[in-house]
Amino acid sequence: MNKRKVIVIGGGAAGLMAAGQAASSGADVLLLEKMKRPGRKICITGKGRCNLTNIAEMKEFIDHFGKNGRFLRQAFSRFFAPELMAFLEQQGLELVSERGGRVFPASGKAPDVVKIFQQWLQKCGVQIKTEARVELLLTTNGRVSGVLCDNEALGCDGVILATGGVSYAATGSTGDGYRLAAAVGHSVIPVRPALVPLEIAGDLTAPLDGLELRNINVRLICNGKRTRQAFGEMSFTKFGVTGPVILTLSGEVVDGLRREDSITLSLDLKPALDEQKLDARLLRDLESRGKEPMGSILRGLLPREMIPVCLKLTEIPADRLGGQVTASERKRLKTWLKDFRLEVSGHRPFTEAIVTAGGVDLKEVDPRTMESLKAPGLYLAGEVLDLQGDTGGYNLQAAFSTGWLAGRSAALGPDAK
């Protein structure tokens, strides 16, 4: 029996996994990558360390994708974090788990992941063509039957679209997949940046540039109503705020800004203390250090860089002695420590977004095979789909899992279900 021919468009996480799995399942595979080498985006993920996945249980894992997460259940039931970790270790990549369940290469070097995949694809017999630009998906009787690449028609039995989103365009993610999918009948949910730093109104964050905060709680307030919160780490920049907590909340912020909602971040700098305990702590400090200025007393409560900001916003003079602080000033200080507010004025561009929100409508893709319900013979995987998760290894796992399933399904064809 002749081997099925499969063409994979895109050499990122989903495309590399799809190509290798398709070849391992018996297909003759051609991987088309428009950059000079595959895996460029993998090399910059996790700040160059590549946060591959997370050891969270499946239910929690899926919850990190919001309402669209249930689409992943089929792919995850076939190839999930334990299978990915076992696969990578079998290929010779040592892994480590860190705080928050995040999994990284033990070497701390993302290019090691790409090297492992390249070696695997070579062993599987995958042909890789770089600097290859796909202009069109070819169809025969409503079925995808090939691609037009650099003005050359390439026929096949199945095409896997794994072109990524539009974040980090320098790595090759320029939204080509949305155009290709739309041309064969797919609906594309409007794309916007996700896991993206936020801009803050005024110059409040400029003097805090570079300051990192740990163990804080950030609440999101949209049009005066608290909608979501996250606990963990964040940092300040000249333009605003970033870090894991901020990135987790950013998707909802971006959507709110598109609706022209009024959006504010409320920072609880002392989440371990309720207001009563914090007030008692302030009273003790002010009484025991009554002859010291507030600029000095606050060093026991805040990072040095935040003290001038705190004093300015609470309108307490820096030279005010602890014993002279009034009850109303102490109340303002307590309120500020539990509810430091930052008005969101915007978000950073796609060039700074970790992933893309939006993409090919999931209702038009079979979650059991990743095959298109609009154009048979087309399979979709990774960020080109309307799937986006929180930071912490979730998005890469989704790319690997959907790529694994798409690769197997494309190789087996009608026998995949």
CATH class membership of the largest domain: Alpha Beta
Separation, N- and C-terminal Cα atoms = 20 Å
Number of helices: 12
Mean pLDDT: 95
**How many runs of DSSP E, i.e. beta strands?**
19
Structural domain tally: 2
Fraction in helix? 25-40%
Decide which structural class fits the backbone.
Answer: alpha+beta
Description:
It is a single chain. The chain contains twelve helices and 19 strands. It has 417 residues and is of the alpha+beta class. It has two domains: 5-194 and 354-416, FAD/NAD(P)-binding domain (3-Layer(bba) Sandwich), CATH 3.50.50.60; 197-347, no CATH class. The chain has a six-stranded antiparallel beta barrel with strand order 12-15-14-13-16-17. The protein has a five-stranded parallel beta sheet with strand order 6-2-1-10-19, with helices on one face. A three-stranded antiparallel beta sheet has the order 3-5-4. The longest helix has 19 residues, at 394-412. The protein is elongated and about 90 Å long. The mean pLDDT is 95.
What characteristics describe this protein?
single chain; 6-stranded antiparallel β-barrel; 5-stranded parallel beta sheet; 25% strand
Strand and helix layout:
Layout: E1 5-9, H1 13-24, E2 28-33, E3 53-54, H2 58-63, H3 73-78, H4 81-90, E4 95-97, E5 102-105, H5 111-124, E6 127-130, E7 134-140, E8 143-149, E9 152-155, E10 158-161, H6 176-183, E11 188-194, E12 198-200, E13 212-222, E14 225-236, E15 240-242, H7 244-258, E16 263-268, H8 275-288, H9 294-297, H10 307-314, H11 327-338, E17 340-347, E18 355-360, E19 378-380, H12 394-412
Parallel strand pairs: 1-2, 1-10, 2-6, 10-19
Antiparallel strand pairs: 3-5, 4-5, 7-8, 8-9, 11-18, 12-15, 12-17, 13-14, 13-16, 14-15, 16-17
